[in-house]
Amino acid sequence: MNLGVLASGRGSNLDALIAATGDGRLSSRIRVVLSDVADAPALEKARAAGIPAFAIDPGRPGARLARSATDAFVAALGEHEVDLVCLAGFMRIVGKRFVTAYPDRILNIHPSLLPSFRGLHPQRQALEAGVKVAGCTVHVVVPEVDAGPIVGQATVPVLENDTVDTLSARILVEEHRLYPEVVRSFEDGRVTLNAGRAHVAPPR
Ligand code: GRF
């Protein structure tokens, strides 16, 4: 499969996907990395790995991409023959127009056990709620934010003295393991979507 990764920031999940394509856990190739932020460290990480990487102007402030920006992202993914899009710390809302261009073919990783703690600062939300278990979710992207069929989750304990930073770091370790594992299940054709739910067959 050809992967396209969209990232706005430091790109540690991108790194994890790059590592998995390098060591044989994934047979896909990352064909392009795109960002809405011109100086995103993720772009540098991609270029250092020899992957084409570009910023695309989001076209307007706020969470949503402008229509023209959506079209530019979709066009860039098409030019690189991407068939699975991985959002990895992409801080823009991918709306209906984007989703329609890649139906059931866009994944996102979110640092909470969805459907709990959607939106911004999920680790802080988890601490404030006093939950004892936290984690991360990879889900298929639908126009509603942090909704969409859940493909994989991983849990971590919440410790008594946790801060947002310590909890985030513990979750991040699991993110880096989970995202390549979920992409692998797509490579293998083990994911079936039905009535808003994802069914994942075990590895053969
Ligand atoms: C991760 O916690 C991811 O789950 C969230 O944003 C963060 C991105 O981190 N969506 P990185 O850029 O992959 O290091």
Structural features, described:
This protein is α/β, with parallel strands linked by helices and about 200 residues long. Helices cover about 35% and strands about 25% of the residues. It is built from 6 helices and 9 strands. It has helices at about 10-20, 40-50, 65-80, 95-100, 120-130, 165-185; strands at about 1-5, 30-35, 55, 85, 105-110, 135-140, 150-155, 190-195, 195-200. The strands form 2 sheets. Strands 3-2-1-4-5-6-7 form a 7-stranded mixed sheet, sandwiched between helices. Strands 8-9 form a two-stranded antiparallel sheet. Helix 1 (about 10-20) runs parallel beside helix 6. The mean pLDDT is about 95. It binds 5-O-phosphono-beta-D-ribofuranosylamine. 5-O-phosphono-beta-D-ribofuranosylamine (GRF) binds near residues 7, 88, 89, 111 and 136.
